[in-house]
Design a protein that fits this description.
The chain is α/β, with parallel strands linked by helices. 38% of the residues lie in helices and 14% in strands. The chain is built from 19 helices and 13 strands. Helix 2 packs across helix 8 and helix 7 (165-171) crosses helix 8 (192-215). The chain is elongated. The relative contact order is 0.15. Mean pLDDT is 93; it is low at 5-17.
Length: 421
């Protein structure tokens, strides 16, 4: 049985363009739901990987469920489906399987036997309980790379605790240093912990695939949400180790680096990063404070940090009598890094976003157009792209199963038993 159809055959079944990019031909099975695992798979799909997303089918009768990844109905819905779904699941194919049935688990094993990558973000032990232990899948397909994303990792005393992104952000150290001093620690307004874990997972997959070129062997990539966050905490731990320093929230400033802050204007705030030695002198000249720019005591960051309140006050007095546009015009002329705080409305109207292809218009069934984020990063010769809109639940079930060699009658029998949708 051929678990994966060729791209050309899939295109004939689905009517979508053939994916292309640096990962063309890479076969990926995505299991799990919501954010971290699916974001990792989305990133691979954006660059041409063939991704089959496995989702639970809808259930009718007692205990009825809508089925599918819960993200399908998170936040704002259009025609009953989250517009977030259109981003998270683009370029993927949906296979609806009830993993509680042995037939569905056999289908997963067949898919994994011919896949390059399998991604799962269930709680540790779930795959093993289904008889789909990654160690067994790799034994059956020695070239398989398995990404496992969880709150606390596959080992350690916390492995069995349920873990979401907000807990990873807290345990990883991010939540404590975010917000205003003396106030309730705040969270970033997006699922940053999940996204960081997903990106670390993609890095792990690509490294494992690169190593596979030498050894011919796959392996398991274990990503914990809290570790992905902790990996981005810069000098947090060594500062504590060396000096006993426990960094706290810095508000809009970057503690220990000056001047770098948000400064009030007459119609909003302007962000200024004047912490480079040469940049600081240009900044002070731009705001009419050359005496500060020429002060030997402020020539380096350590000296500026010691007098950060004085510097913030001087800059704030200058910005307070100007609009954001006026401040930015003067700072741009002086080659000082500065910018406004963008709302999503600003993003959608910004010419630089548009010029970089970061605002992709996608036609919708009702005749409207939906803007979705563009592809990151930009590759010069083999770029990624948005080639296929997010699938409806089970949209590709028949095509995938037929590609595995199942007949129409066999697929109908599995559907009648509730194994697939």
């Amino acid at each position: 049985m051929a678990a994966f159809q060729s791209s050309a055959q899939a295109d004939r079944e689905s009517g979508t363009p053939t994916p292309f990019g640096p990962l063309a031909g890479l076969k990926v099975v995505e299991m799990g739901q919501l954010i971290a695992g699916p974001f990792a798979a989305k990133t691979l799909a954006d660059f041409g990987a063939e991704v089959i997303k496995i989702e639970p089918p809808a259930k009718s009768g007692p205990g009825a469920t809508a089925g599918g990844d819960p993200l399908r109905v998170w936040r704002l819905l259009k025609d009953g489906t989250s517009v977030w779904w259109q981003v998270q699941s683009r370029n993927k194919r949906s296979l609806a399987l009830d993993l509680r049935t042995p037939q569905a688990r056999d289908i997963v094993r067949a898919l994994a036997a011919e896949a390059d990558v399998l991604i799962e973000n269930f709680r540790p032990g779930a795959m093993e309980a289904w008889g789909l232990a990654p160690a067994d899948l790799v034994a059956a397909n020695p070239r398989l790379v398995v990404l496992r994303v969880s709150g606390y990792g596959q080992t350690g005393p916390y492995r069995d605790k349920p873990g979401f992104g907000l807990l990873g952000e807290a345990m990883g150290g991010m939540r404590h240093i975010t917000g205003e001093p003396g106030k309730v620690p705040v969270r970033v307004g997006v699922s940053l912990g999940d996204t960081l874990a997903a990106l670390h997972g993609v890095i792990g997959i690509l490294m494992a695939l690169q190593e596979r070129h030498r050894s011919g062997q796959g392996q398991v990539v274990d990503v914990a949400l809290y570790e992905a966050v902790f990996n981005c905490m810069e000098s947090l731990l060594p500062e504590y180790s060396a000096f006993g320093a426990v960094r706290g929230p810095g508000g809009s400033a970057l503690p220990g680096i000056a001047p770098s802050n948000a400064y009030p204007c007459t119609d909003g705030y302007v962000l200024i990063g004047g912490n480079g030695d040469g940049i600081f002198k240009r900044l002070m000249s731009a705001i009419g404070r050359d005496e500060l720019g020429q002060d030997p005591a402020l020539a380096d960051n350590a000296g500026r940090v010691a007098r950060v309140s004085e510097l913030d006050e001087a800059i704030g007095q200058w910005t307070a009598v100007r609009t954001v546009d006026q401040a930015l015009a003067a700072l741009d002329a002086a080659q000082v890094p500065a910018g406004r705080i963008f709302t999503v409305a600003d993003i959608a109207a910004d010419p630089h976003y548009a010029a970089r292809g970061m605002l992709l218009p996608r036609p919708q069934a009702d005749g409207s157009t939906l803007l979705v984020p563009g592809i990151v990063p930009k590759l010069s010769r083999t770029p990624g792209g948005h080639h296929r809109d997010a699938p409806s639940l089970g949209q590709d079930t028949d095509a995938v199963l037929a590609g595995m060699g199942l007949t129409t009658a066999q697929i109908a029998e599995l559907r009648a038993k509730g194994v697939v949708q």
